[in-house]
Amino acid sequence: MPLPFLTADRTFEAADDVALPFEDRDRWRRPYRPGPWRVGVAALWLLLASYVLFAAVIIALTGTVTGAAVVFGIALAVIAGALRLLRMGVWVSARGLRQVGFLMTRTAPWDQVTAVRTVQQPVRWLGLPRTVQGQALMLVRRGRGTDDMPMLMTTHNADFLGRVAAFDRAADAVEAWAAENNRG
Which residues contact 63 (CB under 8 A, 6 or more apart)? Predict the structure, then answer.
């Protein structure tokens, strides 16, 4: 049974002459696995949601239906937040590169992408204001200056903190998608 998520976090055969061995290139996919920090926080949110759902059932049995509906709505919001947290990251397809954030998603078609490159610079630690020296995967778009280069992912975000080798594999996969689709 195929899993509903697809990743490229595995070794490829040296005999493959195709850098990106996927059966459906038009499908959006994340070229790496979600990191343990992201999965752990989402699991805690889902655990919290289970307690809130249990509270909604108790309120429905002993209190008012309106109060239970409000608590049930809060549980649904926590579940939606946990699922959105798991969807965050960089996604690629034959159509372009997509950066999914918690509240906003940005998509850049491949014809607008000049380059995707890894740079050494100060990066935010787990998205907090504290910065540390690390690597970032940057997107260079046509007609935009170097000041407007968004960071796609870093060595210190929730997916790659403490996993530098996984960051290198993911950056190589995204760069391979960019090179493959900018060939013409």
Answer: none
